[in-house]
Write a structure and sequence with these properties.
Elements (H helix, E strand, L loop, with lengths): L10 H4 L9 H16 L3 E2 L14 E8 L5 E6 L6 E3 L8 H13 L17 E8 L6 E7 L7 H11 L5 E6 L11 E6 L4 E5 L2 E5 L9 H15 L6 E5 L5 H7 L4 E6 L2 H13 L5 E5 L2 H10 L10 E4 L8 H10 L3 E6 L2 H13 L2 E9 L9 E8 L22 H4 L23
Parallel strand pairs: 1-16, 6-7, 11-12, 11-14, 12-13, 14-15
Antiparallel strand pairs: 2-3, 2-5, 3-4, 5-6, 7-8, 9-10, 15-17, 16-17
Helix pairs in contact: 2-10, 3-4, 8-9
The structure holds S-adenosyl-L-homocysteine.
Amino acid sequence: MDNEQKVCPVAKKCGGCQLQGVPYKKQLEKKRQLVKQCMGDVRVLAPIGMEEPEHYRNKVHAAFGRDRKGNVISGVYESGTHHIVPVDRCMIEDEQADAIIATIRGLLKSFRIKTYDEDSGYGLLRHVMVRTAHATGEILVVLVLASPILPAKNNFVKALRAAHPEITSIVINVNDRHTSMVLGERNILLYGKGYIEDELCGNRYRISPNSFYQVNAVQTKVLYEKAVEYAHLTGKETVIDAYCGIGTIGMTAAAHAKQVIGVELNPSAVKDAIANARRNDCKNISFYNEDAGVYMRKLVAAPAGERVPVDVVFMDPPRSGSSETFLEAVTLLSPKRVVYISCDPHTLGRDLDYMRKHGYRPVECQPVDMFPYTDDIENVVLLERTRQGHESQRQSGTVKPGNYRYSKELRKVRTAASGRGPKTSKPQSGKRSH
Ligand code: SAH
């Protein structure tokens, strides 16, 4: 089918795919122009696109409610509102996930499960999130409920599994707050392991409902390979993986570095990261559950003899970009290279400006199209140190091998509810969360 004819019937109301109807090659060109505008003097390479740019989203969530006639509907929020636009099949979502959501919608009546009403606070089912693992085929279904009790839950699970034997786990997530966040903090296991496992760049990862995982597995491999290439690792480096999520970039880099330190705010992601390091027998990585800026500042403030020398920093902050605290600490730690991964060219451009003024040159930017049909674009940028930093202060400190740290002191730093940043599930009208 010609790209130009592929227009989704609910494209306008949903607003999630801003580039519907635009041929894929043109989409990539538009994105390249946008990145160039934000990037100043940086060399911007042609975006790496997908061969098959449909149904790439491995995380799908649907809001549940009722239409005016009282029929159960599921779909996405209409741009700028909390009205649900019914969606059965979506061009960018995983097809199995869409089919599972449709089945759940069909089961609700016979199980007398009411959908939740935001205004009255009455009802039970708020959202369904489905996560699929590209490499292993595992599928996790998360039923987001306003209370922990699902009537006839065993029979519900039976019926759902009978219709979709491909499902490997089912979890209730309790979200009893008046919030636009999809997920609450508490998960109750109904069936299976409670998470999916996926394989990426030679490692296996456990991904829990509340942890961030890139939504496009095919392009994530491309992105990580480019990021590791930019880092020019020789096996001798100490590397920081800031905003590390479940530890995927750090573990991909660990095979080529002396040691890696992962820093992440979301405790669920850090737990996954620790389990993942063990699972992959990755002994030269350790994790800290802390705000990345605060952690970096502590590294800077460490007494000279205990200071960990940092050679390379990978940073992959949420859409809002990094903080000045973090960026300042990076410049003080003075790594030779910084590899900045970003899903928002605007905040990336802003942060690159800061880095330019403080002794770093953004050398090259490789856009990777993780989000076809939307106007989002992922970028990986290599920055090199231009000034001699604080070499004289750099002492050799080593993070002990296998030291999967989750220290008490650092746990206290949890701030936001469940410690999630803006990149996690949140029904942003017209803009999907990654
Ligand atoms: N690098 C990972 C995750 C990137 S998403 C990957 O490729 O999968 C950004 C991550 O930053 C999320 O896991 C989010 O929880 C985390 N985060 C958000 N704000 C943070 C902060 N202030 N300090 C540390 N981590 C943060």
